[in-house]
Design brief:
GO terms for molecular function: oxidoreductase activity. By secondary structure, this protein is mostly beta strands. The protein has 4 helices and 18 strands. The longest helix has 13 residues.
Amino acid sequence: MTAPASETATDALTSDGATAPDPVRRVPHPPTARRLTVSAVQDLGPRLRRVTLTGSDLAGFRAWGPLDHVKVFFPGPQGLVVPVVEEGRWVNREDPALLHRDYTVRTFDPTVGLVLDMVVHDHGPAGRWTARAAPGQELATLGPRGSALPPLDRDRYVLAADETGLPALLNWLDRLPTTADVVAHVEVQDEADELPEEALGGHRVTWHHRRGAAPGTTTLLPDAVAGTPLGDGTVWAWAAGETAAVRAIRTGLAARGLRRDSFAMTGYWRRGVANFDHHSPEA
């Protein structure tokens, strides 16, 4: 999935009590609904597929930040119901026939299309659709509603994600220079879910395996981040995944003295909650 930097440093306090500026620059985009066609599907692993969407509706599409995301609308019993935007407002958002989930924009190139990395699972319409995805099928998207441009000038980057946050983490690795001091932790089921080195932007990733444990039930990521040195220079920490794990990471970093203008954390999903709103204060 994919996601915004919903927990950032807005109105963060410095050590002397002054308000620190938000290090994340935000650029709004007009809400735009698009009807698109699957042009390609690539298996990146047993539980991750890369889906490329194309169509004339992609004219004017913008996605500039590593965390930019779109709402993806899937066909339901009534077929594909598309969001309707009028005068900048999503007017049919309460229509029960709309089936949607949020996904990080992996890449966008007008000559290639909109690329999304989507997790395969057997619960919910999104995971089941992804398992059967094939060229020629149609989806709809809404957004991105804006781009979040985090700082790229820190001395050390500490990144952590599960499968749902992996596309955004890969975006980070693509944008950071190979000389950057990056520590990246990713939680997956087992070795089969690891990506090859050439997909990691020249950076090293430490893979943590659940070994059959259900997603959202381990402390692999909080433990990994807790054991990561922050160094003596400036730090930017980012994490995305199951809400309880992300909250534990955030709490642990704060306890180690990392200021809120030095991290962005987002709970993309919550165990046992369908269609969790990652924009909510609970994320």
